[in-house]
Amino acid sequence: YPNVNIHNFTTSWRDGMAFNALIHKHRPDLIDFDKLKKSNAHYNLQNAFNLAEQHLGLTKLLDPEDISVEHPDEKSIITYVVTYYHYFSKMKALKVEGKRIGKVLDNAIETEKMIEKYESLASDLLEWIEQTIIILNNRKFANSLVGVQQQLQAFNTFQNLTPPHLRAVVAVAKELEAESYHDIKRITARKDNVIRLWEYLLELLKARRHRLELNLGLQRVFQEMLYIMDWMDEMKVTSTRIKCQQLRFL
After folding, report:
1. What are the Calponin-homology (CH) domain coordinates in residue numbering (predicted)?
2. Taking a C-beta distance cutoff of 8 angstroms, is the pair 191, 170 a contact?
3. Radius of gyration of the chain (CA)
4. What is the structure's pLDDT at 217?
5. pTM over 0.70, yes/no
6. Residue 46 backbone dihedrals phi, psi, to 5 degrees
């Protein structure tokens, strides 16, 4: 600080600039340091002592007259400066503790956001799985080759519409587990339920595809049988027509 040069605990404090600098260092909102003049010792001392008492709660152990003398009492100044030290050390500790509390609160808020995200993802995915299971359990198939082919094509398209929530649910659950979330058992149970239903859904998808492919094969056989029957009918008509012509010729 300008006009502040501390090299002892007597005369270095006599003009009051050091006391004001000490307060300004930690509470710059209380003092306009640039307006202070080294030559106005009494005002400087009175200003620092009053601010320390009113805003910092430090007892005014000294008066300006005790300091602005040729040989100020060293022990008295040391005793008074120590009260500043204890106050600002405590303030710093509280500031550090405040940052720690703030960090804990931030972590709690982030965890709460993760919980909300997890609940939303899990709910949406479970609803989608349950609806899909109902669709896959429908055993109705088309009664024509074209109809079954369309069903198989629609199934292939549907199978590619797997929602992206499955991996997200597992990832968020792992994050919460890493954060030692207090209700992790419930989170894990829901995740396991999602995985169990998903595996069941995959089994249904596999079975559905198998049934569709079997039905497609049957429809092709039926189609070929119809072609053969039509051909036989045509051959029968042709054979009858030939016989009639032969009888007429005779």
Report:
1. 1-89
2. yes
3. 45
4. 73
5. no
6. -65, -40
